[in-house]
Write a structure and sequence with these properties.
Distance between the termini: 59 Å
Largest sheet: 9 strands, mixed
Number of domains: 3
CATH superfamily of the largest domain: Mur-like, catalytic domain
Strand order of the largest sheet: 7-8-6-9-10-11-12-13-14
CATH topology of the largest domain: UDP-N-acetylmuramoyl-L-alanine:D-glutamate ligase
Number of helices: 17
Shape: globular
CATH architecture of the largest domain: 3-Layer(aba) Sandwich
Length: 447
Amino acid sequence: MSLKQQILILGAGESGVGAALLAQKLGYDVFVSDSSAIKISFKKELEENHIAFEEGKHSKEQLIFCNLIIKSPGIPNNAPILQQALELGKEIISEIEFASRFTTARTVCVTGSNGKTTTTALIGHILIETGLDVCVCGNIGRSFARELAKSDHDIFVIELSSFQLEHMVKFRANVAVLLNITPDHLERYNNSIEEYARTKFRITQNQTVSDMFVYNADDKIIKKLLPTSYGQAKQYGFSLLSELKEGAYADNENIYLNIDNHTTTMNIEALALQGKHNVYNSMAAAVATHMFDSRKDALKKSFQTFQKIEHRLEFVAKVHGISFYNDSKATNVNSVWYALESMKSPIIWIAGGVDKGNDYNALLPLVKEKVKALICLGTDNTKLMNAFTPHLEIIMETTSMMDAVNAAYRIGNPNDIVLLSPACASFDLFENFEDRGIQYKNAIREL
């Protein structure tokens, strides 16, 4: 094959392997490089598809001879291999950017610090109920490139993290949804909330006047940056604080969807998803699906039949009157705030892991009101314990999920809630947040 057909893919996780499968299908000469050991399942997939790869290093010769680099989102921008690539004048793009170049499908893209997965899944559910050809992908599970390699669709609903929004060049979201912006991953963005926020706003780049930008009109950071950070798309807000002429708003009883001088009303109690945070997610999804002419009856039915996402405030079981909830996906303080806010009974809170520069002060009012005990789960619980020791009588340290669940169960009483909502990344004790949630559920089954 010619030099123009040689692609180097950095990272052999879901994103990188998905990009490799698509590139191979399109006829490119592909090489996958990962500086760490490749997960067994991904290595097997590369071998079965006869895709060349290396692990534990990035070979400079591969960098020299490639024409295009597809960077996996987990690789930081200051990684030496990327600096070398820039010095050599190599084009670096994301897996999302690469996949988008080979489909004419319309795209609905969702980002934000919290609620991305739930909102993405809900949008997909609504559109599928409407009878459209839809694929839900991205940060929610399978990569955009992998799904496109399998088959094209009329609509892709894509969850995008801030990492995935980097290195996108021509990618265009027909509908861009920005849910909220709270401090997260700031170590990647020079500890700057504004730099992080502007990365989130990249979801609007390349939008035209025929596109939609759906945003949280109550979010102070979004409102501050909105005048200088979005493109040409028509704006639709959603709010719990103000009535909006274009978009959605809610009171204590109903959600009101106002689009093009038409109003649809939905009763909040009838929604499958409850809690203040899910009212925001539901409003965002309702507005985002408007472009696709979702019928009112299908829209309302979809909100009633939607199933919660695994590891996001997922009810697991009730054991001797104690209810166990799995919120392993809550890897920042704001996510935990929503989880604590939604609970109505005394909480035994399991938290901890790899701290991401958390400021726990925002949680103190809810912790004082609702939490009876804190079970710390991590290799270093110092910061978490220092934050809450003055405010809680019961704080315990554990270093395994089984110990954490057993400790919570021992101090629990009927009608208590045991809530795994870590506020931290999982990589000290677990492979990822899914592994953490699965181990939590397995430990509960052993009680």
